[in-house]
Structure formats: C-alpha cells, structure tokens
Amino acid sequence: MGHLxxxxxSLRTQVLEHRVQLGFSLRVTISAVVSxxxxxLLHVPLPLWTVLTAVxxxxxxxxxxxxxxxxxxxxxxxxxxxxxxxxxLVPHPNEVALAGALAxxxxxxxxxxxxxxxxxxxxxxxxxVLLVPGIAHVGPIDSAVYRVIEVAVGGVxxxxxxxxxxxxxxxxxxxxxxxxxxLAAGSLPxxxxxFTQTRDAAVxxxxxxxIGKAFARLDAIAxxxxxxxxxxxxxxxxxxxxxxxxxxxRHDLVxxxxxxxxxxxxxxxxxxxxPLTRVAETVGGYxxxxxxxxAARRAPPPLAAAEAALDGxxxxxxxxxxxxxxxGLPVDTVERIFTVAFVLEQIHQHLRxxxxxxxxxxxxx
Length: 365
Description:
This protein has about 375 residues and is mainly α. The protein contains 13 helices and no strands. Helix content is about 80%, strand content about 0%.
C-alpha cells in the first residue's frame, strides 16, 4: 500500500508539473480527431489537409490561435482564388505546361507572402490547388473550393477547441512574471556581494543574461495576451502595469550590477556591508514571496521588512556623509556610492508598484 501511495503521489506530481504540456497534447488530439470526423461528414476528398490545418492552428493559447486562423484563412482564400483561376485559364496537359502554370501561380503568391507575412499560406495553397487535381481526380475549380473548405473546417475546429479548452496567455504571462521575480530574487545576494568583495564579471553577465531572457519571454507572452483581449476576452485587465514594473526592476538590477563591478573602499564596505546584505535578503525575499502570490492569485506579501532595510541603508549612508568620509574620494567612487543610493530609492518605489500589481491580479482572480 505504501508503494502504491508513493507511486500515485509521484504520478500526481508529474501531472501537475506538466499540466500545460498535457493540456496542449489534449487540444491538438481533439482538433485532429474532430477535424477528421467533420471532413468525412462533408466528403472532403483529402481529409489530410483539414487535419493538418487544425493541428497547425491549435496553438498554445487562444490569442495566438485567433490571429493564426484569421491569417491562414485570408492567405488560403486569396491563394485559392488566384491559383484556381490560373489552373482554369492556363492549359497544362503535360508536365512541362504544368511546371509553367505552377511557376505562374507560385511567383506572385510568394512575393505577396514576402511583403505581407500574414498571406504566407497563399503560396502553399497555390501549390495544392494546382497539384492536388491529379492526385484526387477533381477539377481545378473543385480543388480550389475544397482547399478553402479544408482550411475553414480545420481553422474553425482549432479555434473552437482553443476556446473550449483554453490555455490562456494571461495565465502564462503571470507565471512568466513569477519566474522572472524568482530569478531576480536569487540574483540579489550575488550582485550585492560585489560591493564588498571582488566578483567574477562572467558570473554577473550570466545573471543579467538569464533575467533578460526571462523578461523577453514574458514580453512575448504578454503580446499574445493582448491579442486575447482585443480579439475576444476584452474584459480582462491589462498586464501593462505589471510588465512595466518588472522592466523597471530589470533596469534596477542592471544598474546595481554596474555599480558593484568594483568593491567599495574598505571604510565604506565595513559600514555598509551589513545594511546592503539586509537589503539583498529582504528585497529578495519580497520578490520571491510576490512570485508565490502571483502564482496563487493572492494578496501581496508585507512590504514592511524590505522598506525597513532600505531605510536602514539610507540612514547608514547619511551617517557616512555626516562623518565627511566622502570628502577627498575619487569622483568615480563618489558617483558609484550615490548611484547605489539612487537605485535603491528606485527599487523602493518599484516594489510599491509591484505590490499594487500583485493586488490587482489577486482582485481579478
């Protein structure tokens, strides 16, 4: 019984960890089967193209499926009309004539697809309309009509499946935002350590690169979420404020990394090491807790500890200035010291912005 419970727990964990991939597999499978069944009911000569269209257009989220379906249908319709006209008007009784008709059909469609990528399906459609009649034993006009029917059935099926079993881009964007916050939280101790000890520049570059890639992924998913809001789910709140706040935090980390490329003078390091360590710990903890709150769609964590740490650093720096320790220092050193103070003030404000964003996500749960 113990082994069975362990195996069940392991299976459940795997399912939860891969629920997005499993949901995608289910949507694609349903799209393929349903589009094939509809093709049989409509007596479409080649169900292959209907099924392929449905599988291609069943994307990760509804927003992308909507845009892809509209683009695919527009390109297919234009390609079918033009290539059907070429096939009907240009005789091609042999292979040489067929090659000429194929070139005449494909060249303009390929040019249009290069100029307007949303019509890129037109070239593919032109090839099918000209070559399928010899395989399916239908006329050129019938081939064009069937091609439109195939894409329409496949596209509508994909859209319906994505709507009934949605994997919402907004949810993915929130998960991506949480992932970026976790990365940022984990990077703070390493970045702040550069103020008091020599640090490997490659490590810092790698940290910034990982955070930058995480934000780029978030930005791409947020764009898909905007398609959802525009195309259908217009009542969803905009993710723009959250996106802008995370971008500002990303810039804060870049500035911290640059300011900490060289350790502070020993006198400053001794007095600021403890306040800086406290800032890294509390701000990192707040970012991590905010990521958990986003994932659970709950209220933001308390900000008091991070604010107290930031205020503590400001007081320590004010004490250094009162003692006149900044007098006589090289200009670049003084600039770095006050750059850190400025960045921490910015982080303080951006944490408050993050608090509002997390609260808004929880309120819209």
